[in-house]
Amino acid sequence: MTINYDTNVVPLATAKEPKLTIEMVPSPCWHQNARFYNEDFWDIIRYHIYGLAGYTCQICGKKCSEKSGELECHEKFHYNEELGIQTIVGLQALCYWCHAVKHYDRSKGKGVDETLLFAHLCRINDATPEEGVRYLNKKRDECRRRAKLKWAVDFSYLKERFLIPAKNS
Fold this sequence. Notes:
- This protein is an alpha+beta fold.
- 41% of the residues lie in helices and 14% in strands.
- The chain has helices spanning 34-37, 39-52, 96-102, 104-109, 114-125, 129-147, 156-162, and strands spanning 71-80, 85-95, 152-154.
- The chain has a 3-stranded mixed sheet with strand order 1-2-3.
């Protein structure tokens, strides 16, 4: 499947975010995540999140068995571009495919079939291929813009919600 990535396409104006969003992490923020913050606690945190979600993907609703390894924990971030602060604001239990779409270009770079990524994005969002391309281009433009900035990471969500110290404290 060939997907046209014309960056001159104007993104669709939508009333709300799609059900399955793409959340590309700008390159200056790579590896600045909960695992980096304190990898000793990562398994405890992620299994807690899986249990809260009933071992179900919080986007597509796929039910996963407890020991299948089908669920992954996604860190949701808010980006304050004016202050250059990336803040972790939540954690989600996601199936492999929803998590792969969240990190679309990273997944593609790791060898995940783009045709399958794109199909999942469109299917979950009930979007046409044209809408999917416009949305993907919009998110890529956003990531390129953010990659030019310097970022500090705010892990206060982990400290406050899970009472977890930084690994170097």
